[in-house]
Design a protein that fits this description.
Layout lengths: L1 H27 L6 H14 L2 H16 L4 H29 L1
Helix pairs in contact: 1-4, 2-4, 3-4
Length: about 100
């Protein structure tokens, strides 16, 4: 079971770095600098930005009212929240590039 979790962690990190590559390639490339690219970026950020405070709120409510979360687990959950949003942002960019 430990090996499976290690493989899943490595896979998640690789997906995260792939998402970062997609985001940075789009943002820093010529495609992200024109009007179409700005529209795609703004729509993607418009979808992702509200999810960060919502996710943080869910963690806060769970920690205060349901069950206390240990500090190490809280750090891990925040890490998953931020990296997960980066992955979703990259997926949004891919989908919106095909749509527009």
């Amino acid at each position: 079971m430990e090996v499976l979790f290690a493989v899943l962690r490595i896979g998640y990190v690789l997906v995260f770095f792939g998402a970062c590559f997609i985001i940075f390639k789009f943002e820093w490339g010529s495609e992200g600098k024109d009007e179409r690219g700005q529209t795609i970026t703004n729509k993607s950020y418009g979808i992702i930005f509200p999810l960060l405070p919502f996710g943080w709120f869910i963690l806060y409510v769970y920690d205060d009212f349901i069950s206390p979360i240990p500090y190490e687990t809280y750090k891990l959950l925040i890490w998953f929240l931020v990296t997960g949003l980066m992955i979703i942002h990259a997926l949004n960019l891919i989908v919106l590039k095909k749509r527009y």
